[in-house]
């Protein structure tokens, strides 16, 4: 039943995108966007590589710079592109749109920022602490191992019931969604000991000097945890380690935070609110936010302006509305209806 519902949703999304594209080609984009002038649209990107490598191949996070340029031209034409801090402080006009990047990939510095500067558009990058100081992130390390040495690490994966027999995507999914930080560290230690030393690994992430230069160009930087672990699988001590930005505080100039993989928990929300963050950036539908600080983002990969419009203005709003209605229908009906216009009675205290 779950697979049937998922397939039905995918069919609906596909139809909504084509309807949206038709509306765009009819010249009605500005009219439709104007119907919800106060809704903040937020875009999410990761890497902007011209050619990928084994560290990011298959992660489905890359957008070619030429496609990114199409997105920027569409955004500049139809919206008011503003920094995230303007949104958190209420300093924006009609049709606001925010551009964000997670992880701090080097390609954002080399490919995306020049395109943003050429159009005088602001953006916010969410930095992984360990990446800024020169370390490789476990997600990319694991992806590299699965892409380049799948046979060599099969006996390691076989020791984990949820990973045995899985393909690359399945392993990545199970580790990011279910493994605790200590389990990830143990797994990565075993894999590292099994594989030969890497020769001249690429520089995947921007360092503190590059961040300082981008800040001069008007790019803002928020926090994306220390090690990019799933916060749902972190206890109080690990949350303190992951959410405290003190060791890269000098790089940050936006008091906002982005969840790794979009995962959060009540404990994580409470901790982040205690840190005083002004916005917590999620991924996808946020029609039932768990925190008033949550702001949804759309991961756009459309190759044309028409399909980008369809996703942002037709598909996602309709799907969010349907999710909201589904939640409303699932709410339990009170077993006893309140008495209407019942006279008040005095009760002893």
Reconstruct the topology from this structure.
Layout: H1 2-25, H2 29-34, E1 41-45, H3 65-78, E2 80-81, H4 84-88, E3 96-103, H5 106-118, E4 124-127, H6 129-132, H7 138-148, H8 154-157, H9 168-178, H10 181-194, H11 208-216, E5 220-223, H12 236-243, E6 256-258, H13 266-275, E7 279-281, E8 294-295, E9 298-299, H14 305-330
Parallel strand pairs: 1-3, 1-9, 2-3, 3-4, 4-5, 6-7, 7-8
Helix pairs in contact: 1-14, 3-5, 7-10, 12-13
Summarize this structure briefly:
By secondary structure, the protein is an alpha/beta fold. 46% of the residues lie in helices and 9% in strands. The protein has two domains: 38-134 and 204-305, Alpha-Beta Barrel (TIM Barrel); 138-194.
């Amino acid at each position: 039943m779950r697979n049937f519902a998922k397939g039905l949703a995918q069919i609906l999304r596909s139809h909504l995108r084509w309807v949206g594209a038709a509306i765009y080609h009819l010249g009605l984009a500005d009219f439709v966007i104007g119907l919800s002038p106060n809704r903040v649209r937020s875009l999410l990107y990761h890497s902007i590589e011209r050619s990928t490598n084994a560290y990011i191949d298959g992660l489905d996070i890359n957008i070619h710079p030429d496609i990114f340029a199409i997105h920027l031209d569409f955004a500049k034409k139809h919206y008011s592109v503003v920094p995230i801090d303007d949104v958190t402080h209420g300093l924006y006009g009609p049709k606001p749109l925010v551009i964000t990047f997670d992880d701090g990939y080097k390609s954002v510095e080399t490919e995306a920022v020049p395109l943003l500067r050429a159009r005088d558009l602001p953006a916010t990058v969410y930095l992984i602490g360990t990446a800024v100081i020169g370390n490789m992130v476990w997600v990319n390390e694991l992806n590299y191992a699965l892409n380049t040495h799948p046979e060599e690490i099969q006996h390691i994966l076989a020791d984990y019931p949820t990973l045995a027999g899985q393909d690359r995507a399945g392993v990545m999914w199970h580790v990011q969604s279910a493994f605790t930080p200590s389990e990830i560290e143990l797994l990565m230690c075993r894999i590292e000991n099994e594989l030969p030393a890497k020769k001249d690994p690429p520089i995947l992430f921007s360092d503190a000097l590059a961040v300082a230069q981008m800040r001069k160009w008007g790019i803002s930087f928020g926090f994306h945890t220390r090690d990019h672990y799933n916060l749902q699988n972190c206890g109080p001590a690990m949350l303190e380690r992951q959410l405290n930005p003190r060791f890269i505080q000098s790089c940050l100039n936006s008091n906002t935070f982005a969840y790794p993989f979009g995962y959060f928990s009540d404990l994580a929300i409470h901790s982040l609110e205690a840190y005083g963050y002004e916005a917590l950036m999620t991924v996808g539908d946020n029609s039932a936010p768990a925190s008033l600080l949550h702001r949804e983002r759309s991961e756009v990969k459309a190759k044309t302006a028409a399909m980008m419009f369809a996703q942002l203005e037709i598909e996602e709003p309709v799907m969010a509305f349907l999710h909201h209605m589904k939640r409303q229908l699932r709410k339990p009906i009170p077993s006893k209806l309140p008495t209407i216009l019942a006279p008040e009675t005095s009760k002893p205290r």
